[in-house]
Amino acid sequence: MPTAPKGDAAFKTLRREIISCCARPGSTLSEPEVLAKFDLGKTTCRVALQQLAASGLVQALPPAGLSSRVGDPEGRRRAVRLASSARAACCPPCR
Fold first, then answer.
1. Which positions ≥6 away from 59 have C-beta within 8 Å?
2. Does any domain span residue 95?
3. What is the CATH number of the domain that holds 53?
4. How far is residue 74's CA from residue 40's CA, in Å, rounded to a whole number?
5. pLDDT along the chain (95 residues), means of 10
6. 39 lies in a domain?
């Protein structure tokens, strides 16, 4: 499924934040939050969030949004594999 450049950038940024734990494990990620953060249209936003879910880094929690899975053992293993294979750059230290 092709994505728009902004949607692809949003997916990659969110994936990097989850893998590097800048997004706290178990924290929720809502569609309105992503729409505002990346200035995306609804369809593009949903595609980016679906990609995150398909990668196994988040799980859907209707109606709250998505939750980072890095805190659970399988999520952490998946994040380590992704970080190793993609050599993901760390985002600036989170506060």
1. 53, 66, 67, 69
2. no
3. 1.10.10.10
4. 30
5. 76 87 77 91 91 84 68 61 52 46
6. yes
36: amino acid identity, one letter = A
Q: What is the pLDDT of residue 37?
A: 92
Closest CA to 82 of 8, 19, 7, 10: 19
Place of tokens 């809502």: 30
| Composition of the chain by helix, strand, coil, percent to 5 | 55, 10, 35
Q: How many domains does the chain have?
A: 1
Please, which residues have CB within 8 angstroms of residue 58's CB and are 6 or more apart in sequence? 18, 29, 49, 52, 66, 67, 68, 69
Statement: the pTM of the whole predicted model exceeds 0.70: no
Residue 61 domain-assigned (yes or no): yes
